[in-house]
Amino acid sequence: MRIQAVVWDVDDTLFDYRAADRSGIAAHVAAEGLSTAFESPDHALARWFEVTEFHWARVSAGELTYEEHCRERVRAFTGRDLDDDEADAWFGRYIAHYESAWALFPDFLPALEALVPSHRHAVLSNSSLLVQEHKLRTLGVLDRFEAVLCAVDLGVAKPAAEAFHAACDALGLPPEQVAYVGDHPEIDGRGAAEAGLLSVLIDRYGEEPAGETGDGAGERAWRRIRSLAELPAVLGAETRFGARSTFG
User: How large a percentage of the chain has pLDDT more than 70?
Assistant: First the structure.
C-alpha cells in the first residue's frame, strides 16, 4: 500500500538540537560564571545532558510538569537550592543562548519540498506543544505540517504504539499508509515499526548498526538513512531528488 504521509520527529531529525543545546549551555555556563564548577567544558555539557534526560523522562512519566522539570534541571545542574523564581530566571537566560543557536538541518527543507507534491506531513514529538510549536514557528516551518502532536499533551509517549496511532488518526490514515522519520533507534525506529508504520531512522553520525531486524523473520524494523536526501527514494516518491539508500 502506497505511503500517503510522513510524520516527523523534531529534535535531531529536522532540527539540530544537539548542536543548539551544546552551544547554548556552553555560552550560558560562561555567562553565569560557572566554568570553574566543572572539570572542563565537556564535563559541563555531559552533566547538562544527563540532568536533561533524567528529568525529561519524569515529564514523560507524568511525574513533573514541563515547568517543574525545567526548575529541577537547573537545581540539579547548578547544585543550588534555588526557589522557583530564581530557577525560572536561570532557565530563561539559558533559553536565550539556546534559541540563538537554533537551525534546521540543511537537508530538511530540500527533502520536504521534494515530498510536498506527493505526501502529507505532520509532527509527533515526545516534547510538548508549548515547546515544539514555538520552535517550529521560530524556524519558519510550523505551517508546513497538518498536525503537530506532542507526548506531554497526548498523555502517551513514543515508543508506545498509541502515540504513533494518534498521529495516524490526526491524518485520517491507517498506519500502513504512514511513514515515521526519527533519530532514536528504540523510541522512533522500533516504536514506529512495531506500531505498523514504515519506520525510517535518520542516522546522521553513523552511530547505529545497518542490519537491525524486526520480528525475527529477517525483516528490518526500520530503513536506515544517513541523510534526508535519501528519504524520497525510500518512500518511492515520484521525484528526481535524492538517491536510493545504500545503508539498509
Answer: 90
pLDDT of amino acid 60: 78
Per this entry, what is the length of the chain? 248
Global pTM value: 0.86
Kindly tell me if the per-residue pLDDT of 247 is higher than 50.
no
Please give the residue range of the domain that contains residue 132.
5-16+103-235
Note whether residue 222 is domain-resident.
yes
pLDDT given at position 243 = 39
Contact by Cβ (8 Å): 113, 37: no
The x, y and z cell numbers of residue 133, run together, are: 510549536
Helix 84-99 crosses helix 66-78 at what angle (to 10 degrees)? 90
Same domain membership, residue 110 and residue 130: yes
Q: Which of 71, 99, 127 is the last residue of a domain?
A: 99
**Domain check: are 115 and 210 in the same one?**
yes
